[in-house]
UniProtKB/TrEMBL annotation:
Cited Pfam families: DBR1
Protein name, UniProt field: Lariat debranching enzyme C-terminal domain-containing protein
SUPFAM superfamilies recorded: Metallo-dependent phosphatases (SSF56300)
GO MF term list: RNA lariat debranching enzyme activity
One GO term (biological process): mRNA splicing, via spliceosome
Species this protein is from: Malus baccata
Organism classification: Eukaryota, Viridiplantae, Streptophyta, Embryophyta, Tracheophyta
GO cellular component, one term: nucleus
Alphabetized UniProt keyword annotations: Membrane, Transmembrane, Transmembrane helix
Ranges where the Lariat debranching enzyme C-terminal domain occurs: 160-180
Transmembrane regions: 12-31
Amino acid sequence: MKLKASNYLWEMYYGGWAAPNIYFLGFAGVVKFGNLRIGGLSGIYKQPDFLKGHFDRPPYNGHTIRSVYHVREYDFHKLMQVEEPVDIFLSHDCPFGITDCGDWKELVREKPDFKQEVQERNLGSKPVAQLLEKLKPPYWFSADLHCKFAARVQHGEDGSVTNFLALDKCLPGRKFLQLVC
C-alpha cells in the first residue's frame, strides 16, 4: 500500500485531489479554503535525508520506499518564505519543544515510551519548530505523537498564541477526532 500511495502522492507534488473530498496539500504548500489559509508540510523529519533533496524515484527499493516520505530542506525553505498569515497548519511531525507548552506528564502517562525523549529534549522536529515560530498560526494540528496532546504556544514578540493539537490514530476507542469551534 505504501508503494502505491507514495507513487500517487509524488505525482501530486504540488497538491491535488487524492480522493473524493480529500485534498492533498502537496509536499509543502498553502491553500485558501473560503476565508481560511491552510498550510502543510508532508512527511517525517529524518536528518540524513533532510539535506538530500528528492532523490527517490520508482521503482522504490527497501530504503527509498521509506525515504520518499521524509521531509526535505527544499520544502521546509519554501514554507519559510510564506509572508501572509496562515490560519491553520498541518504536519505529521510535532514541533520540537512542544511538550514545554502542554501537560507533558499526561503525555508520558499515555505514552510511557516518550518519557526519555521528553527528558532528553529530543522529541519533535526542529525544522517544524522553526516553521511554528515563523508562521505563528492560531491552530496547528499534528499526527506523529499517535495520541491526543494539546498545547498553547505563546509567541513572545507579538503575544500571539498557537493552539496545538495532536490526535491519535483513526482506530476504535482512540482519541482521533475533536471539534474546534
